[in-house]
Amino acid sequence: MLVFLSGLPWSAGRDTRGARDPRDRLPSLETSGMTSASGEQAPIAAPPRAGYTSTSPGEACGTVPLEAILRTDELWRRPNRAPDHESENRALARLAQALGEAPQAILQTLADTTRDVLNADSAGMSLLTNDGSAFYWAAIAGDWSPHLGGGTPRDFGPCGDVLDRNAPLLFTRWEKRYPYLAEAVPLAEEGLLVPFHVDGKAVGTIWVIAHSAHRRFDAEDLRQLESMARFASAAYRTVKLLDAHDAGRAALESLERVRESEHRFHQLLQALPAAIYTTDADGRIDFYNEAAVEFAGRRPESGNHWCVTWRLLNPDGSSLPHEACPMAVALKEGRPVRGDEAIAERPDGTRRWFTPYPTPLRDPSGRLTGAINMLVDITERKEAEQRQKLLLDELNHRVKNTLASVQSVVVQAAKSARNVEEFRHAVEGRILAMSRAHDQLSRRSWADAELHELLKACVAPYLSRANVALDGSHTIVAPRVGLMLCMAIHELATNAAKYGALSTPCGRVDVGWSVEKAGAQRMLHLRWLERNGPTVTPPKRHGFGTRLLERGIQAELHGKTSIRYPPAGLECDIEIPLVSG
């Protein structure tokens, strides 16, 4: 193993005092207020700085400027992994459970969990020494684990640069700037570092490393690592709390045997972002943090048992009595409960999905003394799953309707077409009109459509002549209304281009609309008016377009259509109840 605290590596076990354990070179608990990853006390003065005397990073031989090895801006340009909320929830549960069961090893547990969640080759924590001259590696997981207890100088290393900028940084091949890191094998292809703070003061960094180009970090990795950094602050506080009272003993033992530390331990739980509460052996709630109050929408009353929530429901919506909730099961059966989901109803009627992680607490003799529970809010994930299901159902519905519409277009065109070419033009034009409507609706996720934009897309082929005018108020219509109107306008425009106002250079078409109230209903009035075209005569037969305007509007939208043929130009009025969409 190599140690890098001085800027030059030296072999572990060969310092001037003959220490064999690398933790013997870490700051003492009395001077730094910290323990090593294993929880053992490690007293020693700061390491010598022989071998690196430069006062400026630019003076170091063989180094490159900092910006030459930074790739932070690339995080947001790289393809992002999809968020894995279940994995994050499990990781948070593991860490919360470790705080209760093995807090003396929480730093190493955090390093192991960070490496697993981010799928990194190595992960770890760097903490400042008490005098602020160096960082030491308090916990490492993965390929770099043999370097546990090593570190870097404060004024010339990646961690120092992160604290100087007080921002996450992504490095590549940092040995080009910091030559001593060439001794830390395997080399780091990329290193992503995030600072963490305690009481507003930066105390260290949490980091992940990729040792090959096959793993590249992205913005999702940064989000997850920043989440781990927030927990790192709580973990740091936990280690200091344990040290102040019982120098590395388990947090749960300290909680039970050293009553004077209870207040501080509760302060630690208050700092955590997840809803956490504890009970005694009979299930009476004896502590809850403010996150639990926010989650439950109420403050538990004296004597409440089992749950901080007001009312519980099973995933199927049936009532879940508090005495049968996961926390009650954990206490009654003396075992952790995992894998359950439930719904919490607040006093104001709002509901939140959550996953509970109840864990029994025992004293050194094994006697059950209570339990701790963490409630992980999964409402956002459940709502996303529901939206996905609704979208799939809507997609299936839309596909069926579209196929039925296409079939109707083809059948009607076949009936009225006089030859293959006329049939082809009729089918292509109508399907293209449907496509334009689908495009507008897809931009708004099939929730609704803005009428002006929809009609503009429908008459787009004729707008270049400047003889089509659209005039109407901002109007939102349902997808069904928008699709039918686009088909109707296409038929009117096609007819005008063949026989009406759009068949001559001087012709003009005015399309106007308004929305008026008729009792409790809102009615859309749309008018198509042609002028300056050829003299109009009523048609001798009605084709598919006329039938669509007159019958389709009525059958599909419960509206009505009036088509008139004065010599000056065709006029068409369409009236549709908007609530029918």
Q: Fraction of residues in helices?
A: 25-40%
- Quaternary status: single chain
Low-confidence stretches: 1-62, 247-252
Write down the overall geometry: elongated
Sheet-strand content, in percent, reads 15-25%
Q: How many β-strand runs?
A: 22
Distance between the termini: 72 Å
Structural class: alpha+beta
- Sheet having the most strands: 7 strands, antiparallel
Radius of gyration: 35 Å
Average predicted confidence as pLDDT: 78
Helix segment count?
15
Give structural notes:
By secondary structure, the protein is α+β, with helices and mostly antiparallel strands. It is built from 15 helices and 22 strands. The protein has helices spanning 29-32, 85-101, 106-118, 158-165, 219-246, 251-257, 262-271, 290-296, 326-333, 379-416, 420-443, 451-458, 460-463, 479-498, 544-557; strands at 2-3, 10-11, 122-128, 134-142, 151-153, 169-172, 190-198, 201-210, 275-280, 285-288, 311-313, 342-345, 351-356, 359-362, 368-377, 449-450, 468-472, 476-477, 508-518, 521-531, 560-564, 571-577. Strands 9, 10, 11, 12, 13, 14 and 15 form a 7-stranded antiparallel β-sheet that branches. The chain has a 6-stranded antiparallel β-sheet with strand order 5-4-3-8-7-6. It has a 5-stranded mixed β-sheet with strand order 17-19-20-22-21, covered by helices on one side. Helix 5 packs antiparallel against helix 7, helix 12 runs parallel beside helix 14 (479-498) and helix 14 packs antiparallel against helix 15 (544-557).
